[in-house]
Amino acid sequence: MYGTFRVPVGSGYRPGYLSRPDEAGRFPVVLAFPGVGGLKSHQKELCRRLARRGFACLAIDLYPGETEGHQDPSQVDDGLAAYASLSDRAIASDIDEAHEFLESEDVFWSIPDRCGVLGIDVGGRFALIAAATRPWTRAAVVISTPLTGDGNREFHVADMLNHVAVPVLGLYGSADQLIAPETVDAAQDRNQNGQWLLYDGAGHDFIDDGSPEYDPAAAADAESRITQFFQATLPKPETVDLG
After folding, report:
1. Dihedral of the CA atoms 140, 146, 178, 174 (nearest 10)?
2. Mean pLDDT, 10 residues at a time, the chain of 243 residues
């Protein structure tokens, strides 16, 4: 079961995408945070693959521009402008409200007290912030997330790494022109609960099959690791046999 989903946040909604197993029961939840490029097809496919493995996955566009999705350069600029205009606390508050939605009586399919978080690019900043500060977070995956350059933001990810007590999986490309490999090595040193991997020769968008930097081998390995990681760290599905 999957499709576009309007995530209730405050008095309005954020554009999102929901996938969950087509079964009766309650399922571990992964909250996914895309980068400023918005929700792309490969991220939705990752959500669907997680659903086929027994997870409910709710992706949230935390900083939509004037056009949802941000698929062309001008729309990416919209997302960047929205990200720059929003404080870290405001975005974290939206994440909290999305989680409150998962706890509501109307949501019968979630196990909301032990969630995973997954962030791509700057979305990984908020996955790490949640992992460091929110008790309902049990595991975090970050993909090509900048670990430096937070000087103008309220929260600095490098400092957060010292406070993340839950398991972390960090996936990066060694040829990423935006993220220096040594910052990934430094993250491993600062975050003893994490496994931080560099794919040899892979670029920033190695997991995006719509990007010139797409690396099929690295992407396939990353998706396998993400699934296994959440299977090892999140609750088991509580399925109901309806006969």
Report:
1. -40
2. 91 93 95 92 96 96 63 60 89 95 93 97 96 96 95 91 94 97 94 94 96 97 98 94 72
